């Protein structure tokens, strides 16, 4: 996922429709989560997308269970989409739709079950339509203009495909009724709120560490720059790795939950028990594959592989009760508790009455050591690509849910010893910055 020094030249140019229509909004269409901001008064307000939530998982579930031949699949969005999938309802869960932009998949169709298919770009359009509907309900008026965030590079090292990705996202936005569409780079958006407070120019390293990727951008900001609409020249370098929060959850579950079910356990001869089922249980999109009847039967017959048959009993309990998603959620919650400075106690009573385990910061750091090292190296590589040293950085701006992990932040900050550490809204700072930009573009 290494990204070249020079950002695309036309990425943030606004494109206008035939007429200015309605109010405006800003959409952070993220790989893992999305958010919407509405300019309001002199500020920006985030839209509540689900009860009590200002962000929503970028997920759509097409439910086909019980459909008649002429009926269209029922669509569920966000947390409801994930919950419906976890319940085992027949259908297809679509996540990380942003990743298909710029690929040949965008205009291809995919099967969602029961003989129904949907074009990938229509999945994106449907999700944007849901966001637009929620924004209009909140604003109490039609919204015909939108600023959308975009990464510095949708596609690494391929300007043609990168331009195609932005064009595809624009088509999807126009298809749901946005007559005017503009784009802004996500790292610029993340830095805009910080820029409003500055009296002098600064060099800011934006660390956006989310669910799927860890991205770093070195950005020049300041009062003389804040009114500029085109900001691509202010991005001095951009780099990242496909390692982030979901990888952390997998390693935490393998380190402190699945050993209770036999992961890295031994058999009667001292040989380690087969590990594939544990890796699948710790990988979100593979969990349901473990529940297939043939797979369960195979695992049931493996009891003799376990010296401690309690491990096998607990593993079967996970399969029979379909607890895989619940366990990975426990691991994620434990990660968050440790990130906030506590020690997590995980109740595994669903596997065996009274069973518990514990996660503290040293254990978490050890489990995540390789991933944290790759992310910190990506920060260092960003500085190298820009031709600067850590001493040249004035501020380290943190955004994305995984920036709550203290050891990770400490290690990144150590690369920029003079920089002030600034914590933005971990889940919505990009949307807020896009809202600031929407006001400048649309007035």
Explain this structure.
The chain has a domain of about 90 residues. The N terminus is likely disordered. Strand 1 and strand 2 form a beta hairpin. Helix 5 crosses helix 9. It starts with about 20 loop residues before the first strand and ends with a helix. It is α+β, with helices and mostly antiparallel strands and about 450 residues long. It contains twelve helices and 18 strands. The strands form five sheets. Strands 1, 2, 3, 4, 10 and 11 form a six-stranded mixed β-sheet that branches. Strands 14-13-12-17-18 form a five-stranded mixed β-sheet. Strands 6-5-7 form a three-stranded antiparallel β-sheet, with helices on both faces.
Describe the protein's topology.
Blueprint: E1 23-29, E2 33-40, E3 43-46, E4 56-57, E5 59-63, E6 74-77, H1 78-86, E7 91-95, E8 109-113, E9 116-119, H2 120-139, E10 143-150, H3 159-175, E11 180-185, H4 186-195, E12 202-209, E13 214-221, E14 235-241, H5 245-256, H6 276-281, H7 293-300, H8 309-321, H9 324-339, E15 344-347, E16 356-359, H10 361-386, E17 395-399, H11 406-414, E18 420-423, H12 429-442
Parallel strand pairs: 1-10, 10-11, 12-17, 17-18
Antiparallel strand pairs: 1-2, 2-3, 2-4, 5-6, 5-7, 8-9, 12-13, 13-14, 15-16
Helix pairs in contact: 2-3, 4-12, 5-9, 5-10, 10-11
What key phrases describe this protein's structure?
disordered N terminus, alpha+beta
Fraction of residues in helix: 25-40%
Number of strands: 18
Largest sheet: 6 strands, mixed
- In N-to-C order, the SSE pattern is EEEEEEHEEEHEHEHEEEHHHHHEEHEHEH
Q: Give me the secondary-structure category.
A: alpha+beta
Arithmetic mean pLDDT: 89
Alpha carbon gyration radius: 23 Å
The span between the termini is 36 Å
Please report the number of helical segments.
12
Global shape: globular
Strand composition percent: 15-25%
- Uncertain stretches of 5 or more adjacent residues: 1-20
């Amino acid at each position: 996922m290494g990204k070249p020094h020079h950002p695309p030249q036309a990425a943030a140019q606004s494109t206008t429709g035939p007429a200015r229509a309605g109010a405006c909004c800003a959409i952070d269409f993220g790989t893992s989560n999305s958010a919407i901001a509405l300019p309001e008064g002199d500020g920006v307000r985030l839209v509540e997308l689900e009860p009590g939530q200002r962000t929503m998982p970028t997920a759509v579930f097409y439910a086909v269970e019980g459909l008649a031949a002429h009926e269209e699949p029922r669509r569920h969005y966000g947390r409801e989409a994930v919950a419906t999938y976890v319940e085992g309802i027949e259908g297809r869960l679509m996540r990380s739709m942003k990743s298909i932009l710029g690929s040949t998949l965008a205009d291809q169709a995919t099967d969602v079950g029961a003989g129904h298919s949907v074009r990938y770009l229509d999945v994106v359009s449907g999700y944007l339509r849901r966001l637009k509907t929620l924004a209009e309900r909140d604003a109490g008026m039609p919204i015909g203009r939108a600023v959308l965030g975009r990464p510095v590079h949708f596609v690494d090292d391929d300007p043609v495909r990168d331009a195609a990705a932005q064009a595809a996202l624009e088509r999807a936005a126009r298809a749901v009724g946005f007559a005017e569409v503009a784009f802004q780079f996500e790292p610029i958006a993340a830095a805009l709120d910080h820029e409003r407070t500055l009296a002098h120019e600064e060099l800011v390293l934006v660390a956006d560490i989310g669910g799927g990727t860890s991205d770093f951008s070195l950005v020049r900001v300041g009062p003389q720059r804040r009114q500029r609409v085109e900001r691509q020249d202010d991005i001095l370098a951009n780099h990242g790795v496909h390692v982030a929060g979901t990888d952390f959850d997998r390693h935490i579950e393998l380190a402190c939950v699945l050993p209770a079910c036999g992961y890295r356990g031994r058999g009667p001869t001292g040989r380690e028990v087969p590990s594939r089922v544990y890796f699948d249980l710790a990988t979100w999109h593979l969990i349901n594959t473990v529940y297939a009847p043939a797979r369960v039967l195979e695992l049931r017959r493996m009891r003799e592989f376990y010296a401690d048959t309690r491990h096998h009993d607990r593993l079967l309990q996970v399969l029979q009760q379909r607890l895989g998603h619940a366990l990975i959620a426990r691991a994620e919650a434990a990660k968050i508790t440790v990130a906030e400075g506590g020690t997590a106690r995980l109740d595994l009573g669903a596997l065996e009455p009274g069973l518990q385990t514990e996660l503290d910061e040293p254990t978490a750091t050890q489990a995540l050591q390789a991933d944290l090292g790759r992310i910190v190296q990506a920060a260092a590589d960003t500085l190298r690509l820009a031709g600067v040293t850590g001493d040249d950085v004035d501020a380290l701006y943190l955004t994305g849910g995984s920036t709550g992990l203290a050891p990770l932040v400490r290690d990144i900050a150590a690369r920029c010893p003079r920089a002030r550490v600034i914590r933005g809204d971990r889940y919505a700072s990009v949307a807020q910055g896009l809202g600031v930009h929407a006001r400048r573009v649309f007035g």
